[in-house]
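Side project, low priority. Logging it here so it doesn't get lost.
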Amino acid sequence: MGADLVLLAAVAASVIGALLGCLTGLVPGFHTNNVAAVMLALAPATGAAPLAAACMVMSCAAAHALSAAIPSIFLAAPEGNAVIGVLPGHRLLLAGRGAEALRLHVGGCLGALAVSLVMLVPLRWALAPPVDLHGRLLPWLGPALLLGSALVVLAEGVRPRPSGTGSRGWRSAAVAALLMLASAALGHLCVFDRRALLAIGGIGPLFVGLFGLPTLLLAVLDPPTSATGPIGDVAGTDERSARTGPWLGGPSRWRVVLKGSMVGALVGWFPGTSSGQATMLAVVRSGDAPEGALEGARRYVLGVAAVGTANVVFNLAALATFLRVRSGATAAVGGLMTWATAPWTGLLPPVEVGALLLAISIGASVAAPVVLMGGRVAAAARPLLSDRRLLLLVAAALAAICVLPGGARAALVLVAATSLGMLPPLLGVMRVHLMGAMTVPVAVGLLLG
């Protein structure tokens, strides 16, 4: 196949991957890793060119980073005072600014993609040999993860929150610390013991229980009671201004995108780091007043978008530079490309890596308008998305996906994780502390050798 045909096939595969990524993002609990695993299994049988299949996977990952905002903002947004201050996207939705939240997310993703591509070559030059900051910093990763986790706990005490939602100061930090330790113990017992991981059929039961099912179940217990007003009035003044106003706003929000991109780059290079914890450190400011909680929610939405998109770019860079796998998507790309040695050894990326970076750009570009249109549909269907029967159906489907591969042990892990995942919203702290299930065991493992 000529070079022109190879490029055309890669571009076409990238467009298909972008559409698949939009679908995976719209289905709670479904992930781009599922598409990556299917592509890795089917590519040899279908005769698909390895580069085209890899482009499809990376494009899917980029599109998923954008489209996942729709269910995170519009699905299962509760109305009760106990949880209103916990999920930033939901907080904006309940203030009548769901469209603004979605525009911020899309703008943050596209802005972070541009920033990541600009700083990719110089940052890779600094982290890879001969400078090799990656190798020099890796021995300090364990202490850094523990320090980052501690800082996230302390940040809980200073983050802005609406009045009447959760404790404040040292009480919030103490609650966050206890939740992080509990999730770390659960993560160590259920996931970081390899035999236990195989027994429960993968990491799904833990993380669906910690983050997926609690949101749905809390919305079932305390659903929105009205489809009008700040929730249902999608044609209101706030929503109209959100659709026509600036994507990101002033310099302070662009600084959030820049910091989120830098943090996402580090998360993409180093193992065990948590995007959620890194986002919180990047956007929380101790000087914020409680009445500034909506602006804090905007910054968090931007930060999540920037970290997630930069993470996709730098996961690929880590694979191409060190053959180190940092995500399910890059694991599939590595399996498809079958690189015996790292392909990126010079200053500029080789042609194959450049094609994969192009696929990421195509995925984000195709997904952006699709996500914005899907968000308008989701806003109009807000009462349906809050229906108890639909939420229970989604929760049951998620539980089935987790339990069927692992049986009774997976069910036990799911129940334990869901019980723990219900606590942060009810106690008025952020769910990000539950990422201790991954970061703390990894950090302790690195320290112990």
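Brief comment: The chain has 22 helices and no strands.
Revisit when time allows.
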